[in-house]
From TrEMBL:
GO terms for biological process: metabolite repair; nicotinamide nucleotide metabolic process. Residues 226-505 form the YjeF C-terminal domain. It comes from Spirosoma pollinicola. Catalyzes the dehydration of the S-form of NAD(P)HX at the expense of ADP, which is converted to AMP. Together with NAD(P)HX epimerase, which catalyzes the epimerization of the S- and R-forms, the enzyme allows the repair of both epimers of NAD(P)HX, a damaged form of NAD(P)H that is a result of enzymatic or heat-dependent hydration. Catalyzes the epimerization of the S- and R-forms of NAD(P)HX, a damaged form of NAD(P)H that is a result of enzymatic or heat-dependent hydration. This is a prerequisite for the S-specific NAD(P)H-hydrate dehydratase to allow the repair of both epimers of NAD(P)HX. This is Bifunctional NAD(P)H-hydrate repair enzyme. The gene is nnrE. The keyword Lyase applies.
């Protein structure tokens, strides 16, 4: 699903009005209806609801919502924040209609007009939507602060009032802090950025049937992965397949005290459908791996405690591993940053031809030896969390700058970068960014990154295109986390739970 910018959303509105065709006021009515449908599903019709409206079309939505909630017999109060002398046409229209039904509409011109808001009430925030053009000030700011101080549940229409749709806010900006945001038709960039968490709450998309062809043709570099899109990426399996069909992956993982990382990656790799798996671990991990992941072959490093090279020691009596024998390689979980491990990376990278997965300490080694980035095979997948990404690039001052850095880094190095976090951002070598839609805070626990590395390595090994592997793998990993959260809650979720919950259907 595309994420469009404010100008495109405005044009989309116009295009819908022209091509459907539909009168603007009816489009507003449709938006209000979809909002109310959601609202009725979530709040009983006994709940006291205060609707705060601005004077533009977001306020117009609020007026229409108020009328529809009245029809559903909700006890409502409507407050218009009079911050300017002008109102939009559609606001005025809905204002007139509401006045015919409601004895009194309240107007907020000074702080004395701001009502007390109780905990067992719901506030609908329809002050500003995508038309926000400057920071909130004066009576709007006072009203927003009062709403934020109140213990009520807050639902924002389209976007929280005061939050820009696609540009950074200043830290001093006063913005509604909603529990829910119900946004129309398409996700907005502001809704997926970590710093905006307090100004977004749980957000949902309301389909108001805007002009589909316009959306299909609109250029964008931002996407939000919908369940149906992820499912389409999943390849069907041929009944006449054998384990060779699904590739042979190699994982280079683990060091003394961190063999668990190798185990988690290996198990996840198998659960993500790889045909064959070899794991190279330091010798201290050999027995562990052979015991707890019997499905994997284990190649012991010549070193007892760290990884030093892809060929195992002759004394161990194993054949040398040839990187070109593997359909995909994943490097990094738990490997540490020993000089010998760095030397292994330096020796290995230039010899690789196929895309690999690079995670954890392998990323930190890259950050400390940036010339190695030149040897990462094109279309490889790097999976940094924000701190690792900062080490690879530089500090950013806001989430929008971070996205620019991410895009540039992926393009310059011709790689796929999965920036992990809520709504993980996947940057492609072409400069697109796909935001993931699954996952929850329970995934912020040790080992889930190792699981992701295993999953991505398995998908590469099965021949998935690297961008598709990243989008699908990150989606499935988050979905597994959501599955665990729905069964046993997100607190106490472990990486092993996530592996068990991986599903490919
Ligand atoms: N696109 C859709 O899918 C639909 C959207 N709808 C709703 O419409 C709003 C957008 O409405 P719009 O009238 O464009 O903008 P707002 O209601 O957000 O803002 C109204 C005007 O307020 C002025 N403004 C902006 N920032 C401030 C501020 N900080 N202080 C005071 N005034 C401000 C601004 O006018 P200026 O000329 O002064 O810049 C705004 O125009 C969208 O979010 C949806 O809720 C439709 O109802 C359905 C389809
Ligand atoms: K709003």
């Amino acid at each position: 699903m595309k994420i469009l910018n404010v100008d495109q959303i405005r044009s989309l509105d116009q295009s819908t009005i022209q091509h459907e065709p539909i009168a603007p006021i009816n489009l507003m009515e449709r938006a209000a209806h979809t909002f109310v449908e959601w609202f009725v599903d979530h709040f009983p019709d006994t709940i006291h609801t205060k609707i705060f409206c601005g004077l533009g079309n977001n306020g117009g939505d609020g007026m229409a919502i108020a009328r529809l909630l009245l029809e559903h017999q909700y006890p409502i109060e409507v407050y218009v924040v009079r911050y300017a002398p002008r109102e939009s046409d559609d606001f005025m229209h809905n204002h007139r209609r509401l006045k015919l039904l409601l004895d009194s509409i309240h107007y907020i011109e000074s702080t004395a007009d701001i009502p007390a808001i109780r905990h067992n009430e719901v506030v609908i925030d329809a002050i500003f939507g995508s038309g926000l053009s400057r920071p909130t000030e004066g009576i709007v700011k006072d009203t927003i602060q009062a709403i934020n101080r109140a213990p009520a549940t807050v639902v924002s229409v389209d976007i929280a009032s005061g939050l820009y749709t696609d540009q950074p806010n200043e830290p001093t900006d006063v913005i509604i802090e909603p529990d829910y945001t119900l946004t129309f038709q398409l996700p907005k960039l502001a809704l997926v950025l970590p710093k905006n968490g307090p100004y977004v709450g749980n957000w949902h998309i309301l389909d108001i049937r805007l002009h589909k062809r316009f959306i299909d043709q609109a250029p964008t570099s931002y996407y939000f992965t919908q369940p149906s899109e992820a499912r389409l990426l999943l390849r069907k399996r041929n009944r006449f397949s054998n384990k060779g069909t699904f590739g042979h992956a190699l994982l280079l993982a683990g060091s003394y005290g961190k063999i668990g990382a190798a185990v988690l990656s290996a198990k996840a790799c198998l659960r993500a459908g790889v045909g064959l798996l070899t794991v190279q671990v330091p010798q201290c991990g050999y027995t562990i791996l052979q015991t707890v992941v019997p499905e994997a072959m284990c190649s012991p490093d010549r070193h007892q405690n760290i990884l030093t090279g892809i060929a195992p020691s002759d004394q161990a009596g194993h054949e040398s591993l040839d990187p070109s024998d593997f359909s995909a390689i994943g490097i990094g979980p738990g490997i540490g940053k020993a000089p010998e491990t760095l030397a292994m990376l330096k020796g290995l990278l230039p010899s690789l031809k196929k895309p690999i997965v690079v995670d954890a300490d392998a990323l930190n080694l890259l950050a400390e030896n940036r010339e190695l980035l030149n040897h990462i095979p094109p279309s490889s997948i790097l999976t940094p969390h924000p701190k690792e990404f900062e080490r690879l690039t530089k500090k950013w001052s806001n989430d929008y700058q971070k996205l620019d850095l991410l895009r540039e880094f992926a393009k310059k190095n011709k790689i796929v970068v999965v920036l992990k976090g809520a709504f993980s951002a996947i940057a492609t070598p072409d400069g697109d960014i796909h935001f993931n839609s699954t996952g929850n805070p329970g995934l912020s626990t040790g080992g889930t990154g190792d699981v992701l590395t295993g999953v991505l390595t398995a998908l590469l090994a099965q021949g998935y295109d690297p961008v598709e592997a990243a989008v699908l793998g990150v989606y499935a990993h988050g979905l597994a986390g959501d599955q665990v959260a729905s069964q046993r809650g997100s607190i106490g979720m472990t990486a092993s739970d996530v592996i068990d919950a991986l599903r490919w259907e």
